[in-house]
Automatic annotation (TrEMBL):
<dbReference type="GO" id="GO:0006412">
    <property type="term" value="P:translation"/>
</dbReference>
<dbReference type="Pfam" id="PF05046">
    <property type="entry name" value="Img2"/>
</dbReference>
<keyword id="KW-0496">Mitochondrion</keyword>
<dbReference type="GO" id="GO:0005762">
    <property type="term" value="C:mitochondrial large ribosomal subunit"/>
</dbReference>
<dbReference type="GO" id="GO:0003735">
    <property type="term" value="F:structural constituent of ribosome"/>
</dbReference>
<dbReference type="InterPro" id="IPR007740">
    <property type="entry name" value="Ribosomal_mL49"/>
</dbReference>
<keyword id="KW-0689">Ribosomal protein</keyword>
<protein>
    <recommendedName>
        <fullName>Large ribosomal subunit protein mL49</fullName>
    </recommendedName>
</protein>
<keyword id="KW-0687">Ribonucleoprotein</keyword>
<comment type="similarity">
    <text>Belongs to the mitochondrion-specific ribosomal protein mL49 family.</text>
</comment>
Length: 192
């Protein structure tokens, strides 16, 4: 008996919901009355075979093609470079960028620059800012000697033991903590 009563209550709730959705108080609960004409043109085509052919779309804008206009110099300034240009040597740069030195080539390990001439030292923040890992990429040569030298420098600078992880095949070292600026200054002092 209780099951029948519950199903009747559910039907009553559904019926009241349908009446509330009926816009014009029409006697039929499943139909809605529309005052305007019903559009038949909108149709969803389920497959490629039944869809109509696409006609050529008219261009919205009129334009002329001109060869070598004088305004093209302004457009060329906005286009990205095809290749990164070679850096012209200066005494110092306004951005604070430091170029690599020749003495770094003679070390048993080497950290090469990115294509934008920057050091590949990054900070990876995960777990909503709780875990910070500094990553040094593009390492060539003796990665284990670089790891020992870097650990000694970080222990001297930070005053505590610092965890590192060496990925020999991936050619990168991960340092536990935020040591991007310390490692970048160390790399500049080595000449990378």
């Amino acid at each position: 008996m209780a099951t029948v009563w519950r199903s009747q209550c559910a039907f009553a709730r559904l019926l009241i919901g349908k009446i509330a959705q009926n816009p014009n108080n029409s006697p039929d609960l499943c139909t809605k009355l529309f005052r305007g004409p019903i559009s038949v043109t909108s149709r969803n085509y389920s497959n490629y075979a039944n869809s109509p052919f696409i006609e050529r779309i008219k261009e919205q804008y009129e334009y002329d093609i001109i060869k070598n206009p004088p305004e093209w110099a302004y457009v060329e300034r906005l286009l990205p470079f095809d290749t990164i240009p070679v850096v012209t040597p200066k005494e110092n740069y306004p951005s604070g960028w430091i170029p690599p030195r020749e003495e770094a080539v003679h070390l048993p390990y080497f950290v090469s620059r990115t294509k934008n001439h920057e050091l590949p030292i990054y900070l990876n923040i995960t777990y909503r800012g709780m875990r910070k890992i500094t990553k040094i990429k593009k390492i060539e040569g003796d990665i284990w000697l670089l790891n020992d030298t870097l650990k000694a420098h970080l222990k001297e600078t930070a005053g505590k033991y610092v965890e590192t992880r060496v990925h020999e095949l991936g050619k990168f070292i991960e340092v536990k903590g935020d040591y991007v600026n310390v490692i970048r200054n160390w790399a500049h002092s080595k000449g990378f």
